[in-house]
């Protein structure tokens, strides 16, 4: 994660004392392991799979995602620090120990987030999951309607573009929503292991079936090192699942600096400050995330 942090230019922001403090980020995933890098910043937990009360992660994916957003890097002496190490994290378990889940659980998780947003100070929802099922690829699908409802409530919803590229119309649902911020991978030209297979050029590409240009922005996603669901340990994972929390963490920094920004303001600001890579819009969106540029005056 250190490599990715350098690539997205966080250091100047940290020197300003901005860490995401006071901003709640909800992570819909496999849960969260209470790694040392989170300290006391896991503010809430809800489990729609096994209905347990105490935070846990029987897969590791959710912990990896959460630490990219807000890990302190304590166990690595700051080497593998998340983008917003001062933010609070709210884990919502909607995926099982194999990383699979049901749309109904995702919807229940989104409903829970909307109902508890004020209690936990939730401003951002990170969704590093998606479906490429044909029946889900319309804007009227239940997953799209679910994220749209969260967006309409004022939450900043950040969703992965999926790992089914490089063909057209390979953005997964709910990333096809025209409202949410959909994140692709900026370095998928590197051959890495994604979902158990060696892959290259895997980041989902637009347009959507409704001819909406997607993704909206890209960030590094290849070989990202973050927390493991074991004491003091880290491991590397790749995919747009890893790109997405880099953007969520950056938004947490932005909302600490500008707490009155609406989700529409955030999306517009990201568009204006993205770095154009000169790639097709349906590959790079507005461009690559640069945190220093995002928070510059």
From TrEMBL:
Record-annotated Peptidase S8/S53 domain positions: 20-287
Residue ranges of coiled coil: none
Active site residues of this protein: 29 (charge relay system), 61 (charge relay system), 241 (charge relay system)
Alphabetically ordered keywords of this record: Hydrolase, Protease, Serine protease
Pfam family, any one: Peptidase_S8
UniProt GO molecular function: serine-type endopeptidase activity
GO biological process: proteolysis
Alphabetized PROSITE patterns for the sequence: SUBTILASE, SUBTILASE_ASP, SUBTILASE_SER
PANTHER family, per database record: PEPTIDASE S8, SERINE PROTEASE APRX
Family: Belongs to the peptidase S8 family.
Protein name: S8 family peptidase
Protein's organism: Clostridium porci
Lineage, highest ranks first: Bacteria, Bacillati, Bacillota, Clostridia, Eubacteriales
């Amino acid at each position: 994660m250190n490599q990715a942090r350098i690539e997205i230019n966080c250091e100047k922001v940290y020197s300003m004392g901005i860490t995401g403090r006071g901003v709640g980020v909800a992570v819909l995933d496999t849960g969260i392991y209470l790694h040392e890098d989170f300290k006391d910043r896991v503010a809430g937990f809800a489990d729609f799979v096994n209905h347990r009360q105490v935070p846990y992660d029987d897969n590791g994916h959710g912990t990896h995602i959460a630490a990219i957003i807000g890990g302190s890097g304590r166990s690595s002496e700051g080497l593998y620090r998340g983008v917003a190490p001062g933010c609070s994290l709210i884990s919502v378990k909607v995926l099982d120990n194999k990383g699979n889940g049901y749309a109904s659980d995702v919807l229940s998780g989104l409903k829970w987030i909307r109902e508890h947003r004020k209690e936990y100070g939730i401003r951002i929802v990170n969704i590093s999951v998606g479906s490429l099922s044909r029946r889900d690829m319309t804007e009227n699908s239940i997953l799209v309607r679910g994220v749209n409802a969260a967006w309409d409530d004022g939450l900043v919803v950040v969703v992965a573009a999926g790992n089914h590229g490089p063909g057209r119309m390979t953005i997964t649902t709910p990333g096809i929503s025209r409202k949410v911020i959909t994140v692709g991978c900026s370095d998928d030209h590197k051959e890495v292991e994604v979902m158990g297979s060696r892959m290259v050029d895997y980041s989902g590409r637009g347009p959507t079936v409704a001819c909406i240009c997607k993704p909206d922005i890209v960030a590094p996603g290849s070989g990202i090192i973050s927390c493991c669901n074991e004491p003091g340990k880290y491991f590397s994972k790749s995919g747009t699942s890893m790109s997405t929390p880099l953007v969520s963490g950056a938004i947490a920094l932005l909302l600490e600096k500008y707490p009155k920004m609406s989700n529409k303001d955030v999306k517009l600001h990201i568009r204006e400050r993205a770095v154009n890579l000169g790639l097709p819009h349906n590959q790079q969106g507005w461009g690559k995330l640069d945190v220093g540029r995002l928070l510059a005056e």
